[in-house]
Specification:
This is Peptidase M24. Helices cover 43% and strands 24% of the residues. It has 317 residues and is α+β, with helices and mostly antiparallel strands. Strand 9 and strand 10 form a beta hairpin.
């Protein structure tokens, strides 16, 4: 049996026809080769387009990284300026404390009087000298308290890369130094008995497991229903269940920029607008909101910025 063939007529350049005869097998091979070549060309084309897109994407990423680097440099410069401001504030406080310790403040006496007049009075009036000594000791105590607060606040600012506002520290200087600081209106007692289970600062979130979580207060754990007290006198601004993980929350405004928060309570015993005294029971310990057990989440804020509550608390609970 004769195998059918495929005829193809091709016209040459000189006008003569040239006939090419292909068998079905040859035609099939030619079709396969043609298909392979077509697919290869298509793949190369797609690869070239993808490669070009990848190059464009890499260029965009490089540009983005360059912009991010510039932004990081700007943030570094801002942080350097903040550190310089903090150092200046710290140095001013050191000079104030040095003047209080030596009894020779940098500007006038401890009460703003002329140092020469104070020296003359010291020589002629023992009673006045005693009064001045008492005033200096009182000022020294305030300066020491202010320096301690500034130390912890500066430590937190430097540790957290400038996350806290330097204005809070400057306001704290003004508040403490201007006589607005008093034990009754400053959070200076423990909110409850118990054990600190989570300190202020960076931590692993106990609920979500996130490693980048920042804890804006301290957690004090004890028995369910343990009394929680106001750590300073003030006015209740929030009392009840809130969003944001606090559960049943009590917030108290103490004036001079100080605010405290008490979260996860099982019961709230105050209402918004109520005036409370230092040590007054305001809630009962619980585990409402984002919580893994009975405790109180305690925050201290200065002009809206969370600071380490341990700065203000006595050593023993």
């Amino acid at each position: 049996m004769k195998v059918p063939s495929i005829l193809s007529s091709v016209v040459s350049q000189n006008g003569e026809n040239t006939t090419i005869t292909l068998s079905h097998k040859q035609a099939k091979i030619a079709a396969i080769v043609g298909t392979i070549l077509f697919v290869a060309a298509l793949v190369l084309t797609i690869w070239g387009i993808a490669r070009q897109a990848e190059i464009v994407q890499l260029r965009q990423q490089t540009q983005l990284q360059t912009e991010q680097l510039k932004l990081l440099q700007q943030k570094t410069e801002v942080l350097d300026k903040k550190i310089q401001n903090l150092n200046q504030i710290s140095e001013e406080n050191k000079q104030m404390l040095k003047g209080a310790e030596s009894g020779t403040p940098s500007q006038g006496g401890s009460d703003g009087s002329d140092p020469k007049q104070v020296a003359a009075s010291d020589e002629t009036s023992p009673t006045l000298t005693a009064a001045q000594l008492s005033a200096r000791l009182s000022k020294l105590d305030k300066d020491a308290q202010k320096l301690l607060v500034n130390f912890y606040t500066m430590r937190n600012i430097l540790r957290d890369g400038g996350a806290q506002d330097i204005a809070a520290l400057q306001q704290l200087n003004y508040t403490v130094g201007s006589g607005g600081y008093t034990n009754s209106t400053t959070p200076s007692i423990w909110p409850s008995k118990g054990v600190i289970t989570s300190p202020y600062g960076s931590r692993i979130d106990p609920v979500t497991g996130a490693s980048s979580a920042f804890h804006e207060g301290i957690d004090i754990a004890d028995d369910y229903g343990t009394s929680i007290v106001a750590t300073a006198a003030g006015t209740v601004t929030i009392a009840g269940y809130t969003d944001g993980g606090y559960g049943n929350l009590v917030e108290i405004d103490h004036g001079n920029g100080f605010v405290t928060r008490y979260g996860h309570n099982s019961a709230v015993l105050v209402t918004p607008g109520m005036s409370v005294k230092q040590g007054q029971v305001i809630a009962l310990m619980g585990s409402t909101g984002k919580s893994t057990g009975a405790h109180v989440h305690y925050e201290v804020r200065i002009n809206g910025t969370a600071v380490d509550p341990m700065v203000f608390l006595p050593i023993s609970n």
